[in-house]
Design goal:
elongated, single chain, two-stranded antiparallel ribbon, about 400 residues, about 70% helix, alpha/beta, five-stranded mixed sheet
Length: about 400
């Protein structure tokens, strides 16, 4: 068949094989261009969303760092101002004690009381800052988790306890506690600002998985897979029935898998078991997933503790400001007393100057007797020394 062969006729226009091939090529090229455009727009949209999420996260971190820096700077400024104010007041009080005396003793005692309260408030702020530093060092600095794998065992309860102990504070978890229904889970994590507890179970059916690894024939492998699927499903059901208690435990429980290889095998070959566990509100977690959960809980505990200490610092700073305002009023009273005493001293100085001038005038005068003349005989006459 040649390219000039007429394939079909549209209306009165015959379509050749070459035209038909060119039309199909143009249609395919147009579809390809449309597919590339749609794919490019999807990638651009996802990149924009990713950038927006990263920008919001960076802004949140910047805001938290800015608040922490503002609190620290304010505490440092308050300490510096208190030290300077203490030095200045000591000098002023010494001057008052020398010039005013007993009349201002009561005011000085009240000023000393205000300074002692300022010292107490600053001591409370210093204690709160030390508590923040100690708590941060305890919660952030993880112990060597991997070093405990050999000493505490590679699977099950020992490995789970090693991860929990090395990542959380001793008051944040409990091993083998008793719930209200009489059951005893392997671990309970106390959630902050909440009465609920997160349950972790470490009794993974390891025997079925070991049997599956030892199988060599196809029939034995299928039987072992069926056994593993049944054991894991039963264990998920038991966790949901025993440990998910309304008002006492969290609505989701954790089933700990002691090995990354087991966890990967479950997700690769037993997806139906994973989905069934999710529907039963049971999350299957490997050591790495549990470690991530522990680090997340660690950050939550640290954030709650920082909020509590921040409220304490804020309350103490508010009290400190009240004391400073009262101290300012009392300093104003002292200044008025100083001004009044200065005016009195200035008036005394003016009076003493006048008395001294009058004394000098009197000292410059001499008294001598004039000759007796008639009625003015023996009448004294004042003569100035300056008269010669």
């Amino acid at each position: 068949m040649s390219l000039d062969t007429i394939v079909f006729v549209i209306g009165q226009h015959p379509v050749t094989l070459l035209e038909f091939i060119l039309w199909l090529g143009g249609l395919g090229l147009a579809l390809l261009v449309l597919a590339v455009i749609f794919a490019w727009r999807g990638l651009r949209g996802r990149a924009a969303e990713r950038q927006a999420v990263e920008a919001r996260a960076q802004e949140l971190e910047y805001r938290l760092a800015e608040v922490a820096g503002s609190l620290k700077n304010f505490a440092e400024q308050a300490q510096g101002q208190q030290a300077l104010m203490t030095h200045t007041l000591n000098e002023r009080l010494d001057q008052v004690s020398l010039r005013v005396g007993h009349g201002l003793s009561d005011q000085a005692e009240r000023t000393a009381l205000s300074l002692s309260r300022l010292h107490e408030r600053l001591a409370v702020i210093d204690t709160a800052q030390k508590n923040l530093t100690q708590l941060s060092s305890e919660m952030v600095n993880l112990k060597d988790i991997l070093a405990n794998k050999q000493t505490r065992g590679a699977f099950g309860q020992g490995r789970m306890e090693a991860i929990i102990r090395d990542g959380l504070h001793a008051t944040a978890y409990a091993f083998q506690p008793t719930l209200s229904n009489g059951t005893r889970p392997d671990c309970l994590i106390k959630l902050p600002d909440c009465t609920l507890h997160l349950v972790i179970d470490a009794k993974f059916p390891l025997e079925a998985f070991n049997a599956l690894k030892d199988c060599r024939h196809e029939a034995d492998i299928r039987a072992a897979e069926q056994r593993l699927r049944a054991d894991v499903s039963k264990h998920v059901k038991d966790i949901a029935e025993k440990y998910l208690i309304d008002g006492e435990t969290h609505e989701t429980a954790i089933m700990f898998v002691p090995s990354e290889s087991i966890y990967a095998e479950l997700h690769e070959r037993f997806e139906d078991v994973i989905q069934k566990a999710h529907r039963a509100r049971v999350i299957i977690a490997s050591p790495n997933v549990l470690l991530l959960l522990v680090q997340t809980m660690q950050a939550i505990f640290k954030d709650v503790a920082m909020r509590e200490q921040a409220h304490t610092i804020k309350a103490e700073v508010t009290k400190l400001l009240d004391d400073v305002m009262r101290l300012k009023e009392r300093v104003s009273d002292l200044r008025r007393h100083f001004d009044a005493a200065g005016q009195d001293i200035e008036k005394i100085g003016i009076s003493s100057d006048r008395i001294a001038k009058r004394g000098l005038r009197i000292e410059n005068l001499e008294v001598e007797e004039a000759p007796a003349l008639g009625a003015e005989a023996k009448r004294p006459r004042l003569v100035s020394r300056n008269d010669g």
